[in-house]
Amino acid sequence: MAFASALKCRECGREYPTDPLNVCEFCFGPLEVAYDYEAISRAISRERIQNGPLTMWRYQDLLPVDGDHAVDLQTGFTPLMKAPNLGRLLGLDHLYIKNDAVNPTNSFKDRVVSVASTKALEYEFKTLACASTGNLAGSVAAHAARAGMNAYIFIPADLERGKVVGAAIYGPTLVAINGSYDDVNRLCSELADTYPWAFVNINMRPYYAEGSKTLGYEVAEQLGWQAPAHCIVPSASGSMFTKIWKGLKEFEDLELIPKVHTHMHMTQAAGCAPIAEAYEAGVTRVRPVKPNSIAKSLAIGNPADGYYSLKTIQESDGDATIVPEDEVVAGIQMLAENEGIFTETAGGVVISGLKRLVERGAIKRDEVTVAYITGNGLKTLEAVEDTVRSVTIDPTTSSFEEQVLNA
Amino acid sequence: MGVTVRIPAPLRRVTNDQDRVEVDAENLADMVDAMEEQFPGIKERLIDETGSLRHFVNIYVNGEDVQFLQGLETAIKASDEVSIVPAVAGG
């Protein structure tokens, strides 16, 4: 906390105190946490980080809250696994999977919510709330339970069962809305102006978003204190994509890692790809779309960080890939069958997007490549149910031989 | 009776803390001009130098994002509800 000095408008640069604010009163630009990097650079070191907890809180010097009082479900420091089988299949010698599906509520959202809920307690809010495409719902509900707070969770009514149950079990008030995520978001913006609640992705947003930087820090540390050549990242609002890049650049600026030459590649599914479409069209204004995608966790038609995501692509000399809807499940299967990791639809978008990137020569065989898997497959069983088979038999050797071995 | 416009918290300093205002206007561009007369300074917060809606401002007419309608040229009538909503991060 000591190092977060202000909130600063990303557009016009106006500064605000570190209050529960998210929008600049003058230009509506998003506010971002500003830090005293000189003080951080005097305090931080590889050793200090390595001596910290085996969670995202080892990076607390670069987070905008007091880590000693964190609402902490032991999130983060998830495995960075070498993926030799998938690498061989795709033609990559140094492919890694950042498996963030193993967080406490099975998605990367625990990183942002751990920060946001800690901040909400600091501000003495009693209620945590969010608009969610599913993963955030479960994470907010769990952190509210842990923190002893009330929770209001707003989701589109058509979400996968696993995400609905996976949020409801923690005992929040769960409200399904007849509409898309963008409708839910608009409603929540209005509610956030009316009720004194901490909406993690509205009035807590500047703090919330910082949690995703830890996905950049961890990968750099786990690669032996260096940034990868390529990051493949799924995008909905684009927030995480920009924050992974910010995390890598902060580590570079603090001289914790050598100069960063990472190319940031965003992947979106064809049924909701507003940022990637703007990239392909060569424009900086993201036109909203009406989502119709199997990848519901990425189905944000009006992405708040679309503009900054395009800037991240430009700064990092990366790109954006649109994955056809009918390749999403194939991506899930490829990862499961080759590396033993079962991801949700967003991860299928990442793996199929990665395949496309390699095929078009954007990634070379000998370059260190990290694919970000940010959610667990058990949350989106509906997407793959029809592709798997099992056999039911009587408990006899003969039925096993007849119906399985010799079938 | 005019069109009702919902004002988000960050703009309420300009609208003297009113969370709804009423204006007479036939389309959104007129609406913004009419609001500017009542509440000087509001227009520059919504519209950029090129006359377009700012990047991080969303306007909805009866719940529909005007980017799916006719943008600032979208027609409005007395019974409509217009919402001004800042862009929100993902979930």
Task: Give a description of the structure.
The complex is a heterodimer of chains A (407) and B (91). In chain A, 38% of the residues lie in helices and 15% in strands. By secondary structure, chain A is α/β, with parallel strands linked by helices. In chain A, helix 9 packs across helix 10, helix 10 packs across helix 12 and helix 11 crosses helix 12. Chain B has a 5-stranded mixed sheet, with helices on one face. In chain B, strand 3 and strand 4 form a beta hairpin. The mean pLDDT of chain B is 91. Chains A and B meet through helix 5, helix 7 and helix 8 of A and strand 3 and strand 5 of B.
Concise structural overview:
The complex is a heterodimer of chains A (407) and B (91). In chain A, 38% of the residues lie in helices and 15% in strands.
What is the percent of helical residues of chain B?
Answer: 10-25%
Oligomer class: heterodimer
Main pleated-sheet profile of chain B: 5 strands, mixed
Distance linking N and C termini of chain B:
38 Å
Mean of residue pLDDT of chain A?
A: 96
Radius of gyration of chain B: 12 Å
> How many structural units, i.e. domains of chain A?
2
Mean pLDDT of chain B: 91
The geometry of chain B reads as: globular
Return the structural class of chain B.
Answer: alpha+beta
CATH class categorisation of the largest domain in chain A: Alpha Beta
User: What is the chain-wise order of helices and strands of chain B?
Assistant: EEHHEEE
- Assigned CATH class of chain B: Alpha Beta
The main sheet of chain B orders its strands as 2-1-5-3-4
Features:
heterodimer, A: 407 residues, Rossmann fold, 2 domains, 16 helices, 13 strands, globular, B: 91 residues, Ubiquitin-like (UB roll), 23% strand
Describe the secondary structure blueprint for this structure.
The complex is a heterodimer of chains A (407) and B (91).
Chain A: E1 4-9, E2 15-16, E3 31-35, H1 37-43, H2 46-50, E4 80-82, H3 84-90, E5 95-99, H4 109-122, E6 127-131, H5 135-147, E7 150-156, H6 161-168, E8 173-177, H7 181-192, E9 198-199, H8 205-210, H9 213-222, E10 230-234, H10 239-253, E11 263-269, H11 274-281, H12 306-316, E12 319-323, H13 328-339, H14 345-359, E13 369-373, H15 381-384, H16 397-405
Parallel strand pairs in A: 5-13, 6-7, 6-9, 7-8, 10-11, 10-13, 11-12
Antiparallel strand pairs in A: 1-2, 1-3, 4-5
Chain B: E1 3-6, E2 20-23, H1 28-38, H2 42-46, E3 57-61, E4 64-65, E5 81-86
Parallel strand pairs in B: 1-5
Antiparallel strand pairs in B: 1-2, 3-4, 3-5
